[in-house]
Amino acid sequence: MKGGEKAKIICKFLKKRYMKHLLDLRNWHDNVFQLLIATILSQRTRDENTEKASKQLFQIAKTPKAILRLDNKKLQQLIKPSGFYRQKAKNIKKVCRILLEKYNGKVPSTREKLLELPGVGCKTADVVLCYGFNRATIPVDVHVAVCSQRLGLTKNREPEKIRIDLEKIVPERCKRIINLGFVVFGKEICLTRKPRCSICKLKKICVYYKDAISRRE
């Protein structure tokens, strides 16, 4: 089965199963700035920690100016649940300063300019572009990477190369559901350490599952 054909089957499955999660994205953030900051806070931590840290911060400071008015100890205290809070606080302050000085307080809308911001890597930039600016790009986290590899959509290991592979074969209208769907699917069924293949509806087209069956025979 060709990659594009397989991608369409997977997209249809993910859309049917996880469309509600996609609609719930409207509740993730109030604006692009808050999405950017929340995504920085999400690095190397769990979703519930990100949510707690984001809520604590945005209850006190919702704009670049307001965050810059916080002293470092206060900012660190607010975002502490996200972990690595000292470094994240430094990056967030730097980001706010740059946004005010270079972009009139607005978040830049290109990948190149986003990647110039402190603490912003490829995944963070793609999340902001995808969910903040509605761009047809695919943020690649560990779940997207693992699911894509197991299902045979990519042979690459590097997130950037995986993104490029996926964007070549995934229809534009499906790029957001591929990201969100794989994130939820990876937590629910295609677990990183031990996938639940016995209940997976995609196992018939899964390279990982076929290899596992071959090894048992």
Annotated CATH architecture of the largest domain: Orthogonal Bundle
Biggest pleated sheet: none
* Rg calculated over all Cα atoms: 19 Å
Dominant shape:
elongated
Structural class: mainly alpha
Helix content: 55-70%
Q: Could you tell me the CATH topology label of the largest domain.
A: Endonuclease III, domain 1
Per DSSP E runs of 2 or more residues, the count of β-strands stands at 0
User: Helical element count?
Assistant: 12
Q: What is the average of the pLDDT values?
A: 93
Order of helices and strands: HHHHHHHHHHHH
What is the total number of structural domains? 2
Beta-strand percent range: under 5%
Q: What's the CATH C level of the largest domain?
A: Mainly Alpha
* Low-pLDDT stretches: none
Describe this structure in words.
The chain has twelve helices and no strands. It starts with a helix and ends with a helix. By secondary structure, it is mostly helical. It has helices at 3-23, 32-41, 47-60, 64-69, 72-79, 85-103, 111-115, 122-132, 142-151, 159-169, 175-188, 207-216. Helix 1 packs across helix 11 and helix 5 crosses helix 6. The chain has two domains: 3-24 and 139-211, Helix-hairpin-Helix base-excision DNA repair enzymes (C-terminal) (Endonuclease Iii, domain 2); 28-132, Endonuclease III, domain 1 (Orthogonal Bundle). Helices cover 64% and strands 0% of the residues.
Briefly summarize what is shown.
The protein is built from 12 helices and no strands. It has helices spanning about 5-25, 30-40, 45-60, 65-70, 70-80, 85-105, 110-115, 120-130, 140-150, 160-170, 175-190, 205-215.
